[in-house]
Amino acid sequence: GPRVVDSPVQTADVWETMIGMAGIKAKDWVRFGMDLRPQLLGDEFEGAGQGGSASGDGVRGGSGGGVGGADDVGGDPSSRFVYTEGGFLYPNEIANEADMCLAGCPRGLYCPRGRQVAQPNGNNGCPRFSMIRNSTHKLVYRPTGNSELYDLTSDPRELHNLYYYTADGDGD
Fold it and tell me: Where do Gly residues bias regions lie (predicted)?
């Protein structure tokens, strides 16, 4: 039946899961997805970290979880890191999601947080970012500023940005 999987997942996992479900023998190269069939079938940990393999079978292998992947942490997908990036560093007329969001468009890709931080200097376009997270922390880096760091255990709604705080608790 319906369930919630707490382990971090990423788009690359869709590929690994689909080729695994189709029984396709994948090429023997390093991939960064993880086969999610165990989570889909209700067993969160059995077989975790076995996708994206160097062995090429799409199910077993050594490089499975990507950076900090489940294979690197003993097969526990809740300790896995996932990564994404996107946007443009400079204004771009094609990437207008931030403008749509700022105008209140409900389909803007960066709503509602985009209303707060998307290109605060007024430039058009979708701000450049990189994000890495695991089940306990999330880091969003933006080269133009407004980066974010959250302790997801104590702040699951991401209300307290820790990025600009020093070890003694003072913010910049």
Answer: 48-72
Q: 27 lies in which domain range?
A: 1-74
Asked if residue 10 lies in contact with residue 33, where contact means CB atoms within 8 angstroms, the answer is yes
Give pLDDT tens digits for 54-72: 333 333 222 333 344 444 3
Question: Is the full-model pTM beyond 0.90?
Answer: no
pLDDT tens for each residue of 68-110: 444 433 456 667 888 888 776 655 545 555 555 556 555 554 4
Q: Tell whether 64 and 92 lie within a shared domain.
A: no
* Cα dihedral sign, 12-75-153-134: negative
Q: What 3-state class would DSSP assign to 16? A: helix
- Are residues 69 and 88 located together in one domain of the fold? no
The one-letter amino acid code at 57 reads D
Q: How many domains does the chain have?
A: 2
Tell the residue number behind the tokens 């077989």, with chain if given: 47
CB 148 within 8 A of CB 158: yes
Given a contact cutoff of 8 angstroms between Cβ atoms, the answer to whether 143 and 166 are in contact is no
Q: Which two tokens stand for residue 108?
A: 């803007």
CB of 94 closer than 8 Å to CB of 63: no
